[in-house]
Specification:
The complex is a heterotrimer of chains A (375), B (152) and C (175). Chain A is 47% helix and 13% strand. Chain A is α+β, with helices and mostly antiparallel strands. In chain A, the strands form 3 sheets. Chain A has a 3-stranded antiparallel sheet. Chain B is of the alpha/beta class and 152 residues long. Chain B contains 3 helices and 7 strands. Classes of the chains: A alpha+beta (375), B alpha/beta (152), C alpha/beta (175). Chains in contact: A-B, A-C, B-C.
């Protein structure tokens, strides 16, 4: 009998080639450009090119007064606009040693957490869409509108509010604020179960994301990956726990930590964080103390000469504001340590040797906001 | 480790280090050429263990070009700020630290883009935000843009 | 939207070409009706306004009611490019190329203050294009920072109104 010889057909081509993803690509969530080196379908190398939305906000800050800077921070990470405002407000308040009223602290914490929920809702919507589930997009944005309604009622705008001012708030909250927030929490507790049913328990989603893009704890620290992405790798980096600001030392909440660090657990971390945020809001919403909505501030704010650093936890990680003041009403140098910029650095190392389709899932799980990378 | 012993340790490692007054962090100004060696011992020393570089930025103080390193330890929870500076505005160069903390790779590219500070041994030192053929370094105080930037 | 609802802005209809023959007018009306009710936008979102554009496409505002049916990721399949967000010097050549790749007839909506004029990034920056009309011709401007989804819907209706004034014989002429 003649011997049958099986010559293996090379499944993967030897040659490497490059593909440009972006700057106009729906799954990069903006104008990020990734130059991907591929071998067949396998990602061999990846080079992010940023700067397609670099507006020079840090340079602008050198000519602007501190209340003006708040309006620019809105436009960096527009999905956590309030939290960005909070960073600059805290920086100015700590530098001038202003004690803000308790009422302000409570309201700020509640609004920060609402912002976090709406940011994660939009992330969930886009994550589902990137993995091919268009229903998620509609569900996520439908529930997000409920939060935007609450925002609109109190602050008069949907997305960029500039509601915080140094020393307090621009105006008091709407009388119906508490009622509406409570109604929303009740509504969203039910809806988040829907989220779980449609995507979390979905076998296709789990199979597609489990074990993809593994980020170890050491790498997370070395690359300075913060936020839910870092915590999914076991890097305890929650600024709210480690350096509490506003009311976070008074409330009881859990820091979500996983050790696996793959795409699926980054997903879990964000889903759990939404639940924790709701828990924080529930603890505070009934106890907002009466009082002023702003401390007395001078008309022109001049920070004493020196260096200041303030960090807050945005929906994507640790935002640091580093400010050097020379005693004038404008800062000498303002630096925003944006969480997305550090998180982008890790994309190359965790997406190597994965399929190009998985790159989309990994990118979605890291939850980039490109104007925050480029500033 | 408490603040006093960190100060002593850093001064033992680099005798030229000058302590700078800062309420928030311990701040040291160190000579640029000593930075890489100091960084190595800061990270790999067991009781220092500064493994988390959370911010790296440049500052143009007109007199100097400064690179500011914000370091923290996730194990012990202490933090430290180091400043390396140079007076050379034409061809400033520092040693890279991105072999020690990987987050430094992107931060240093940003500093190179905005301040024109070169980092020796950096694996991929290109402009990160601006075009390759962009003239000048925008975050320097002497950057001139007559069209857009208004002097009041 | 009917013409009488645009009473606050009625100059546009005066541009309608006079002295056209009956046959051509009927063909024009049919083609323009079809075109104006099937405007497919390109997903071109650079910053914050993109989120409002997404919100306009999602369940509450539902773009698709007005024929802005699907967002296309490829410029070859798109009719209108909604420039949502700041355009910087590095992005401007890309935007121009995207615009060139779109097939005729093509339309541009500048959404938000940055795309209209540079917006809050007008002074003291070095990298921002002051309005997208420095790069490509714009049909409709929508002010706001960011504009509400209702504003985007209104802007799109204005574009549809503009499309309805076109003639097949002079399709490439700007209105």
């Amino acid at each position: 009998m003649k011997e049958v010889i099986h010559t293996p057909v090379p499944y993967i081509e030897e040659e490497e080639y490059h593909i440009n993803m972006g700057p106009q690509h729906p799954s990069t969530h903006g104008v990020l450009r990734l130059v991907v080196t591929l071998q067949g379908e396998i990602v061999k190398k990846l080079k992010p090119h940023c700067g397609y939305i670099h507006r020079g906000i840090e340079k602008m800050c050198e000519k602007d007064t501190y209340p003006q800077i708040i309006h620019l921070t809105d436009r960096m990470d527009y999905l956590s606009a309030h939290i960005n405002n909070h960073a600059v407000c805290l920086l100015v308040e700590n530098a001038l040693q202003v004690e803000v009223p308790e009422r302000v602290k409570y309201i700020r914490t509640i609004i920060d957490e609402l912002t976090r929920i709406q940011s994660h809702q939009l992330w969930w919507a886009c994550y589902g869409m990137d993995l091919g589930g268009l229903t998620c997009f509609f569900y996520g944005l439908r529930d997000r509108e409920k939060i935007l309604d609450i925002f609109e009622q109190s602050f008069g705008s949907r997305l960029l509010h500039s509601y915080y001012a140094p020393g307090g708030l621009m105006m008091d909250i709407h009388p119906d604020f508490q009622k509406n927030v409570k109604a929303f929490i009740k509504y969203f507790r039910k809806k988040i179960k829907d989220y779980d049913r449609i995507l979390t328990g979905n076998v296709i989603m789990q199979e597609r994301t489990r074990g993809i893009g593994i980020l170890t704890r050491d790498n997370a620290i070395s690359y300075a990956v913060t936020g839910p992405s870092g915590r999914a790798s076991g890097f305890s980096c929650d600024v709210r726990k480690h350096y509490p600001y506003a009311c976070y030392d008074k409330v009881d909440f859990k820091e979500i930590l996983y050790t696996e660090g793959d795409t699926l657990h980054r997903y879990f971390a964000r889903m759990e964080e939404m639940r924790e945020s709701m828990k924080i809001i529930e603890q505070l919403i009934d106890n907002i103390p009466a009082g002023d909505y702003s401390a007395k501030m001078k008309a022109v704010l001049k920070l004493p000469a020196g260096e200041y650093y303030q960090r807050v936890e945005t929906a994507r990680g640790e935002l640091g504001v580093y400010c050097i003041s020379d005693g004038n009403k404008t800062p000498f140098r303002m630096k925003f340590r944006s969480p997305n910029f550090s998180n982008l650095g890790v994309l190359d190392s965790i997406s190597r040797d994965t399929k190009i389709a998985d790159l989309v899932a990994i990118g979605a799980s890291l939850d980039f906001v490109i104007p925050d990378i480029d500033r | 480790m408490d603040n006093e012993s960190i100060k002593e340790r850093v001064q033992a490692l680099v005798p030229e280090a000058q302590l700078e007054e800062n309420k928030q962090f311990i701040t040291f100004v160190i000579p640029a050429e000593k930075m890489h060696d100091l960084a190595l011992s800061l990270k790999y020393n067991e009781d220092l263990a500064f493994d988390y570089l959370f911010c790296l930025t440049g500052v143009d103080t007109v007199k100097h070009l400064v690179v500011v390193y914000h370091l923290a330890s996730t194990k012990h929870g202490h933090s430290l700020v180091l400043k390396a500076q140079t007076t050379d505005r034409e061809n400033p160069a520092f040693d890279t630290i991105c072999d020690i903390w990987k987050s430094g790779e992107f931060y240093e590219r940003e500093v190179f883009d905005m301040f024109g500070i070169r980092f020796n041994n950096h694996p991929d030192l290109r402009r990160i935000f601006l075009d390759e053929n962009w003239k000048g370094f925008p975050f320097r105080k002497d950057y001139v843009d007559e069209v857009n930037i208004v002097e009041l | 939207m009917k013409e009488k609802d645009f009473r606050d802005n009625e100059t546009l209809e005066t541009f309608k070409l006079p002295n056209r023959n009956f046959l051509l007018t009927t063909i024009d009306d049919i083609i323009d009706w079809g075109r104006s009710n099937s405007v497919w936008p390109l997903t071109f979102a650079t910053s914050c306004c993109g989120i409002e554009m997404m919100a306009a496409g999602a369940s509450r505002y539902d773009f698709a009611r007005f024929g802005i049916e699907v967002y296309r990721a490829s410029p070859r399949q798109a009719d209108v490019i909604v420039v949502a967000g700041t355009v910087v010097n590095k992005m401007a050549p890309v935007l121009k190329r995207l615009y060139d790749q779109m097939s005729e007839p093509k339309y541009v909506i500048a959404m938000g203050a940055c795309a209209v004029s540079g917006g809050p990034f007008f002074y003291n920056t070095y990298h921002v294009v002051r309005g997208v009309d420095h790069v490509i011709p714009v049909d409709v401007y929508i002010p706001g920072c960011p504009p509400r989804p209702e504003a985007l819907l209104y802007g799109v209706m204005q574009l549809q109104r503009k499309i309805k004034l076109q003639s097949v014989t002079e399709m490439n002429k700007p209105l």
